[in-house]
Amino acid sequence: MLGNYKDLSVYRKAFNQAVDIFRISGNFPKDEKYSLTDQIRRSSRSVCANLGEAYRKRQYESYFISKVSDADMENTETEIWLDFSLEFNFIDMEIYADMVQNNREIGRLLNHMLQHPEKYRGTMKTK
């Protein structure tokens, strides 16, 4: 059985991505504080929060899949905010490329969880 949601490589990658986004978005223009800055920070952190929630209710397959799906949705939203960040020159192409590559790896891992929930739910019974 899984020891902790923090042991999941997808959680560690998503957490590191959220920390990087927090640091980088600190340089965004002040007039973006309540729009782009807040949105990209919230969506990136929500990936981690949804993974934690999925883990805690992993004995219920439908709930687990729903929360992992929510994490995937938030991950997609984060990539969209990265697109805007690049478009408005708030980040450069190198940072953008690295972050999008990480974001897509997180997406692949989340997709694997959605396709194979039994591998992540441990030995608990489905209710």
Q: How do the helices and strands line up, and which of them pair or pack?
A:
Elements: H1 9-25, H2 33-56, H3 61-87, H4 93-115
Task: Return the CATH architecture.
Answer: Up-down Bundle
| End-to-end C-alpha gap | 17 Å
CATH topology: de novo design (two linked rop proteins)
Q: How much of the polypeptide forms β-strand, as a percent range?
A: under 5%
| Class by alpha and beta content | mainly alpha
What is the CATH top level name?
A: Mainly Alpha
Radius of gyration: 15 Å
Oligomeric form: single chain
Structure commentary:
It is a single chain. The protein is mainly alpha-helical. It has a single domain (5-24, 32-117), classed as 23S rRNA-intervening sequence (de novo design (two linked rop proteins)). Helices cover 72% and strands 0% of the residues. The chain contains 4 helices and no strands. It has helices at 9-25, 33-56, 61-87, 93-115. Helix 1 (9-25) runs antiparallel to helix 2 (33-56), helix 1 (9-25) packs antiparallel against helix 4 (93-115) and helix 2 (33-56) runs antiparallel to helix 3 (61-87). The chain is elongated and about 45 Å long. The two termini are 17 Å apart.
